[in-house]
Design a protein that fits this description.
Blueprint (H helix, E strand, L loop, with lengths): L1 E6 L6 H10 L4 E3 H9 L6 H7 L4 E2 L2 E2 L1 H8 L3 H25 L5 E5 L14 E6 L2 H9 L6 H9 L4 H7 L2 E4 L4 H14 L7
Helix pairs in contact: 2-5
Length: 197
């Protein structure tokens, strides 16, 4: 089984590209989606997050905006949150691997792959990229996003040029969806996976 990682900075089109791999038969583990489930209504991490950071949860689970205000800009609080979340995500990832043990390839969608030093666990790393002006336009179009919030998120992420340099494969999403799909198919072919991986 080949373990592939897909990463990329905010607004680069990573989720869209990951879905293209999934449509071609490669199961996708979405770390962000797992975190949202663990922190959502009835999520396993909600009580502990409330204990650590009172007032950041409610009936809908973790209030992501409230939690962001508490931990962004405070390295100690952010480290405490990560020490809670990362082991829970790792457990879910192990379960995903066991559930799909018969597949020739799995794709792991990990936004902060290089930042957390996790790239060595994978057979190949794919970085999704787009020019800065495309990224900014996409991100600022998101509901609730502000230039300040975007700057804070980007400050935690490695520069795009460095991610591109460290990747085994780069998918440029500045063109059409069809263009991105062609790049996905070329990577699968390069890895010997082809259609129906």
């Amino acid at each position: 089984m080949k373990k592939l990682a897909i990463t990329g900075s905010i607004g680069m089109g990573k989720s869209t590209v990951a879905a293209m791999f999934e449509q071609r038969g490669v199961p996708v583990f979405d770390a962000d989606a797992v975190v949202r489930r663990l922190q959502g209504p009835g999520g396993a991490l909600v009580p502990e997050i409330e204990r650590m950071f009172p007032g950041t949860t409610g009936e809908g689970g973790v209030d992501r905006d409230a939690l962001s205000k508490v931990v962004l800009g405070d390295p100690d609080k952010l480290s405490r949150l990560e020490a809670l979340v990362h082991p829970a995500v790792h457990h879910e990832r192990t379960r995903f691997i066991l559930e799909h043990g018969d597949r020739p390839a799995l794709l792991f969608d990990i936004p902060l792959l290089f930042e957390t030093g996790g790239e060595g666990q994978f057979d190949a790393v794919i970085t999704v990229s787009a020019p800065p002006e495309v990224q900014e336009k996409r991100v600022l179009a998101r509901p609730g996003m502000t230039p300040e919030k975007f700057a804070a998120i980007r400050a935690r992420q490695l520069p795009d040029a460095e991610k591109r340099a460290r990747a085994d494969h780069v998918i440029d999403t500045s063109g059409s969806l069809e263009d991105s799909e062609r790049q996905v198919e070329a990577i699968l072919a390069c890895l010997g996976l082809g259609q129906g991986a």
